[in-house]
From TrEMBL:
Residues 230-328 form the ATPase AAA-type core domain. It comes from Zavarzinia compransoris. Residues 5-43 form the Rad50/SbcC-type AAA domain. This is Recombinase RecF. Gene3D superfamilies: P-loop containing nucleotide triphosphate hydrolases. It comes from the Bacteria.
């Protein structure tokens, strides 16, 4: 479980520290830094999966990701993200590529990277292009023998993981973190149309495989919990999946209407709730599940059913919820969530614990 997070110099997050609980809810006004906090968390997941550079470039690249305010004269232009769990701690420092920048001026450059175990022993250390790791059965540290891509974390470039089991375990845990922010619900969205699918124990980040994920829950997951969640949100309704030769069609059936509703007929908010329910009820829980603005497009009456799903998921995963909804936040805090409120001071985000 993550016990401490610190982010420095990422957009408005000049120096933000949070000590999350099993369930943490983050609130704040528009422009306070909630989306920046979410993006900073995704940097850690991307570092473990080897997608750090493309993810950052899609958001404008390193120059736009760096803190835009005043820097101290003795301060390096670095984004630093530090996370401490119950079994390890990890630190990642990103900077600009050295001149001449060439065609890839937006790429991040990994300047430093550190991984320690719970006792503070060094498991991995990287400075620039070189890295050292603690090898199983060896004394001291060993230089990592492979060349490292400068724009990606060493954590994701690990080869021969059997030699570095503790490093591999930390990388595997972070790579399994799940992030949900935007579910496509436009008319052309795969969610709204029949789709070819396979057994899907984890819903994709954009929800495109919703029908297959629901079918998987029906066959070997918490199907009864899904029924309760749908009925709680839409009284008298039941979610079904029809399948024919590997093609899945999502249907919502109501007791008071003879024919079922196909996904293409459902509102954006209904589809979004169904995606959230399916993600939260996954048969393969993630170590960390992060929901950014799950209340978007949802009717206020769905705050309580959604909160119940989140509280239930927090028994299996550590959960972060970043939300505009006071009603959702209130339900979660009453259920035992740790609360943080974000605000801007002098252009920098400040995180204050809610008591």
């Amino acid at each position: 479980m993550i016990r401490h997070l610190r982010i420095r110099n990422y957009r408005s997050l000049r120096n933000v520290a949070i000590e999350p609980a099993g369930l943490t809810v983050v609130t704040g006004g528009n422009g306070a830094g909630k989306s920046n906090l979410y993006r900073a968390l995704t940097l850690l997941g991307a570092a473990a999966r080897g997608t750090l550079a493309p993810g950052m470039v899609e958001e404008g690249g390193m120059p736009s990701a760096l803190w835009a305010g005043e820097w101290r004269k003795d301060e390096r232009s670095r984004i630093i993200v530090e996370v401490e769990s119950t079994t390890w701690s990890y630190s990642l420092a990103l900077g600009l590529p050295p001149p001449p920048e060439g065609a890839f001026a937006l790429d991040p450059r990994v300047k430093e990277e550190y991984l320690h175990d719970a006792a503070g022993n060094s498991l991995m250390e990287r400075k620039g292009p070189s890295a050292w790791m603690r090898v199983r059965g060896a004394r001291g540290r060993t230089a990592y023998p492979f060349a490292l891509d400068p724009q990606e974390a060493a954590l994701a470039q690990l080869r021969e993981p059997h030699l570095y089991p503790e490093v591999a375990a930390a990388q595997g845990e972070m790579a399994r973190w799940r992030f949900y922010h935007h579910f496509r619900t436009d008319a052309a969205s795969p969610i709204r149309n029949p789709q070819v699918g396979t057994r899907t124990t984890v819903l994709a980040a954009d929800g495109h495989d919703l029908a297959a994920a629901v079918a998987t829950l029906r066959e070997g997951g918490p199907s009864a919990a899904l029924d309760r969640a749908v009925d709680r949100a839409f009284p008298g309704a039941r979610l079904e999946v029809e399948h024919d030769r590997g093609e899945f069609t999502l249907l919502l059936k109501r007791h008071d209407i003879e024919r079922p509703f196909a996904a293409r007929e459902l509102s954006d908010g209904t589809l979004r709730f169904l995606c959230l329910a399916t993600a939260l009820l996954s048969a393969r829980p993630s170590p960390l599940l992060i929901l950014n603005e799950p209340d978007q497009s949802l009717h206020p009456d769905l705050a309580a059913p959604l909160a119940e799903l989140i509280l239930d998921a927090a028994a299996r995963s550590q959960v972060w919820v970043i939300t505009h909804s006071e009603a959702l936040a209130r339900h979660l805090v009453r259920g035992g969530a740790a609360g943080y409120d974000l605000r801007l001071e002098g252009g920098a985000t400040v995180a204050e614990a809610v008591t």
